[in-house]
Amino acid sequence: MSTPILEVRDLHVGYGKVEALHGASLTVAPGQIVTVIGPNGAGKSTMLNAIAGALPAAGAARGQVMLNGSDLTGVAIESRVARGMCLVPEKRELFATMTVEDNLQLGSYRRYKAGERNYGDQLDEVYRLFPRLKERRKQDAGTLSGGERQMLAVGRALMAKPRLLMLDEPSLGLAPLIVKEIFHIIVSLKETGVAILLVEQNARAALQVADYAYVLETGDIALEGPAEQLANDPKVIDTYLGLT
Ligand code: ATP
After folding, report:
1. Ligand 1 pocket, 40 CB below 6 A?
2. I need a surface site. Which of 82, 202, 228, 234 has the fewest CB within 10 A?
3. Pairing mode, strands 6-15 and 18-28
4. Rounded distance between C-alpha atoms, residue 197 and residue 212, angstroms
5. Rounded CA gap, 26 and 224, in Å?
6. Which GO terms describe its molecular function (predicted)?
7. Tally of CB atoms within 10 A around 69
8. What is the 3-state secondary structure (H, E, C) of 2-33?
């Protein structure tokens, strides 16, 4: 088997004295979409933030995170991005008074600092994936619709040319038609070769696009398996998919 893009072993995260993640392990192979589903408060965002090196000040993590075979213990968030991982956080964190295109260009800032000047190719690629962003490239990010904002957040992350893209609830707060569009885009992203770790409460949609899935419940991985298998698991159907 080829080296996994991401390998997380026995990851614990605590906020002060309270442990929110009790030793989670997961693997993302090259080119895969892996999803983590689970209810509110299960620890999904905590896990992504710890992997990205972006925990809030109150949080502390222990365990091992390996990106493409190299250990990230003690590696700062910027260096994790430089090594190829990028997180699109739940809050999207765009610069509201800057244009769509300026927000996108900020996504390639680290590559620019490293001396790369040809980010135009990547901008073209982002506009190919998101024609709507191209149409609105001169518009301020703060005036975009919810779905367009999510597209911009993903597009900005892609400007860093990640090998692993981590998405925290990309469908949160979006209307059903837009959710469908966002998941369609996630599948096209996979086709470009980037591996994706997708955290979602929308278990049905996530299991439809993913290759492999984990169920996180109160800080523990309760179940894992090929996404199709989990989508047919009676417990998952009962708890997360409702009647079909
Ligand atoms: P949701 O789907 O609602 O976003 P989640 O699965 O992403 O939930 P987390 O946000 O990771 O869950 O939260 C896991 C647990 O950690 C919760 O009990 C939450 O209250 C706690 N927690 C999260 N962030 C902090 C923080 N900064 N300080 C203290 N506790 C926190």
Report:
1. yes
2. 234
3. antiparallel
4. 10
5. 9
6. ATP binding
7. 10
8. CCCCEEEEEEEEEECCEEEEEEEEEEECCCCE
Which DSSP state fits 145? -
> What is the CA(45)–ligand 1 centre distance, in A?
7
**pTM for the full predicted model:** 0.92
Q: Is the CB of 219 under 6 A from ligand 1?
A: no
The verdict on the CB of residue 109 being under 6 Å from ligand 1 is no
Write out pLDDT tens, residues 154-188: 999 999 889 999 999 999 888 888 899 899 999 99
Closest CA to 122 of 95, 101, 143: 101
Q: Specify the residue with its C-alpha closest to ligand 1, atom 30.
A: 15
Give, in degrees to the nearest 5, the angle at Cα 165 between 35 and 209: 35
Calculate how far, in angstroms, residue 101's C-alpha sits from the geometric centre of ligand 1.
32
Closest CA to 83 of 192, 5, 13, 25: 5
In the reported structure, the alpha carbon of residue 100 is separated from the centroid of ligand 1 by a whole-number distance in angstroms of: 30
